[in-house]
Amino acid sequence: MIRFRHLRTRLTVLYAGLFGIALLFVALAVFTAITASARSVVRGELTATGAVYDQLWESRSAQLEQGAAVLAQDFGFREAVATNDEPTVSSALENLSARQGVDGALLLGSDGYAITAGPSLDEATLNTLWTGLNDGELSSGVLDLNGQPHQAVAAPVMAPVLIGWVVFIDRLDQTQMTRLEELSAIPLNASVLTRAADGWRGMSGPESALAGLMDRAVAEDGAAVGGRTAQGEAMVLARPLPSFDADAPAVLALSYPMAEALKPYEPMFWALGGISLVGLALLVAGTWFLSRGLTRPITALDEAVHRLQAGEDAQVEITSTDEIGRLAESFNAMAGDIRDRQARLTHMALHDMETGLPNRLWLERQAASSASAHVVLFGVDRFEVVRNAIGFEAMGQLVAALGARLSTATGAPVARVGAGVMGLMLEIEGDDADAIAAAARLCAVANEPLKLIGARIDASLTAGLARAVQPTGGLDAVVDRAGVAIDQARAAGSKAALFDAAAYGDPGANLSLMSDLICALESDHVWMAYQPKFDLRQNAITGVEGLMRWNHPKRDFIAPDLFIGMAEETGQIRALTEWGVRRAIADQKALAKAGHRLKVSINVSGRLLSDESFARFALNAVSRAKADLCFEITETAVIDNPEAALGIIDRFAAAGIKVSIDDYGSGLSSLAYLKRIAADELKIDKAFVMSLDESAKDALLVKSTIDLAHSLGMTVTAEGVETQTAMALLRGMGCDTAQGYLIARPLALTALIERLEKPALEAAA
Ligand code: G
Ligand code: G
Ligand code: MN
Description:
Layout: H1 7-73, H2 75-82, H3 86-100, E1 104-109, E2 114-117, H4 123-134, E3 140-145, E4 148-158, E5 162-171, H5 174-183, E6 189-196, E7 199-201, H6 211-220, E8 225-229, E9 232-241, E10 250-257, H7 258-262, H8 266-309, H9 323-350, H10 360-368, E11 374-380, H11 383-390, H12 392-410, E12 415-418, E13 421-426, H13 432-442, E14 450-452, E15 455-457, E16 461-467, H14 478-492, E17 496-498, H15 501-504, H16 507-520, E18 526-535, E19 540-552, E20 556-558, H17 560-570, H18 573-593, E21 599-605, H19 612-625, E22 629-634, H20 642-654, E23 658-664, H21 671-676, E24 681-684, H22 686-690, H23 696-711, E25 715-718, H24 724-732, E26 737-738, H25 749-757
Parallel strand pairs: 16-17, 19-21, 21-22, 22-23, 23-24, 24-25, 25-26
Antiparallel strand pairs: 1-2, 1-5, 3-4, 4-5, 6-7, 6-10, 8-9, 9-10, 11-13, 11-16, 12-13, 14-15, 18-19, 18-26, 19-20
């Protein structure tokens, strides 16, 4: 099955094909009719000519026979024959043949001799003649002489018995045949042929092509036979003639080439062919134009569908009221619907459903198409607090009203980016500083109090800016950068700030750092350093503080301040601390083995204090190992659930785990906290201790803190003891324990054991 790309071609090919087939049939019918009639004309003519020749043959035979009979009955001649008077016979024969106008005459004696006038006959021919006359009882027939057909006619010489034959021989030559041909209405070929064992004799040139047909024609016995020959179709008629040689029958062959018969029709065939071709061409052109007219609206529809697929406008012209016209109409309606729906979807994708304002995506698109502008986000300060105070609905109205004011002030559309965040594109002459100043001024739109549902509401805004194009660093989405800038502005206590990529860092990298950390716990990249704690009364090292260290294979040393804080934020702090507890217990055993019984302190984030599963783990591990541990509670983050935390601290105390309040003075610890926590130790932050010998105020604070702690039943450890002076002062103030570079830096376990072998105060001496 052929596939057409165009309906037009298909119709054209279909019609042209059908018409072509019809033409072919007509041509075939005409050709067959003409050839059939031509054939019958030729056949008739051949038959008629054959009949004419029969008559010619008969009359000539009769005429010659009569002539021969006259001689044969002549008394003198018979006597001459009987007496063997050869000269008389010979001259009589010559006379007669001249008179009859034949080629030769002869006397064939019954004893075998022959007297000839004209062409001489060889022995074989004479035998043939004799046999034909006596056995075949022929008196007239064809005789082959030197390969040429001749007519032989004989009359018997009786005296009174048969003593010989008078025979006339006349060549059946071309002149006779030409005369016969001229008698016919059509220019046929005539010849007399004899059939010998080796084929047809007497055939010349073009006739030999007929040899095959001749045999069939002989078999048909006088009817015309048509067939193919090497020279094209021909029609042949073979009329048998009597032959003296029984082995070589003779025929009159009449032939006519059919091409000759059809020749007169040739111009007609050409004309017919030409007319057909012109007709076909006209039909093809006509169908092509007609079908183009017919398929044009369909083609237009097809193209419109493609345009519709490509998201372009796709309406088609309606040119008719038929099915195609109606189809075009429905298509237009459908395309319109699709366009409307698309527009609605696009609008929905780019607008906030609640307020109808453009949304974050819209703002991002605006930013993407502008190279120089800043994206400014305005965040409603204390959004949750205000929303909880006035309710969701009023908050929505508040944001919409502030957005409207911003839009009026800038003349730019305002997008709603988040619940309490609006954003716009700020196009301003000048540099970043000018943009920040302009954004800060815009925050003042909130200065005028708003009246919502009858009540006055005071709101304030903070602005975050980000350059629409940020080549490197920071967040990918400009709106995210501006959002972070709001937080950065609030943190810096300003009304507006530009996104600071350096300050923001790379939270994505931090996250991967955390997963590295969990893996590192299994390897020896994370290890515990120990810093000795020196008892000022016993003048001996009585404990150590475990401080976590991380040698990252790619980043070298990572400060605990960084990874501990991050672990607290991402929830990894528990796994980290549990590892620390196990490590401390194991190392304490190793120290004991080396002969050093030391209390080991572990830093525990305040955030972990309300974690029940950590508490259970710690209590379990400590009681099983009978370890002597102290938990230094670091307050880097707010304690989530103070009630739970206090309960857990009590359980630690009951299990013999000492509890210490770390970094006292710099953290979030308050007097209320001191009162409620049943701590055993208070660690004064190194910030106070390190300036002890310079600042009288710090000395006073340290002294009174030591007294306060003692009166609350806690021992006091001073951190960051670096000088002899500080050490002496602390001793004078009644401090219990000192920790700092003066005694030792944080050391690896083996280094710690080496250090413990030496005098406790070697450096302080
Ligand atoms: O020694 P150094 O500067 O490295 O310690 C920095 C801070 O890291 C200290 O204030 C200490 O509280 C904290 N820290 C060290 N190790 C741990 C630990 O195992 N757990 C917790 N929560 N904090 C630790
Ligand atoms: O948990 P805490 O915040 O107390 O941890 C003690 C921190 O103080 C560790 O980071 C430790 O390296 C550091 N440190 C310990 N002794 C000294 C000291 O004498 N001088 C200074 N500058 N830092 C110290
Ligand atoms: Mn500590």
